[in-house]
Structure prediction request, 161 residues.
Amino acid sequence: MQKQTVQFTYQVFASYDALSLQDQLLFTQARAALSLAHAPYSKFNVGAAAVLQNGEIIKGSNQENASYPIGICAERVLLSTASTLQSKVPIITMAITYHNERGGNNIPIAPCGMCRQAIAEYESIVNQSIRLILGGETGELYVIEKAADLLPFGFSGVHLK
Prediction:
């Protein structure tokens, strides 16, 4: 038997003000996307914004439904919009934030497992890593250089061949 270790490095910024101006602008767009969320059941609004390689910014927000399983997360709304409007244009950076009406908005949020899979697939399609900026309304922010780092041993098209 052999033991292996999976690890990755990420940056921690003390606050929004510690980010570069470019990252602040993108994170502001993710915050703006919060107002587009439809989350009457969970009261947990998620906003995402991404800058594409061509400089365009795309936004997404979570959309819930009374039949919970058919809701969709902000990250997958954003990816669907990007792949529809800007087919195969790489995403350089994606910022994700949230507002929980029940409180506790100062912990960075990370994509759920389904979104991690979708982001990793998008990285594979355009053959480029996506940098992530993760944060809440206040507090620390995490910057991860490759979204795929959040999904070690991820499932991909290679497994289907």
Q: What stands out?
A: The first helix runs from residue 21 to 33. The CA atoms of residues 51 and 57 lie 4 Å apart. The domain at 11-148 is CATH 3.40.140.10 (Cytidine Deaminase; domain 2). The first strand starts at residue 11 and ends at 13.
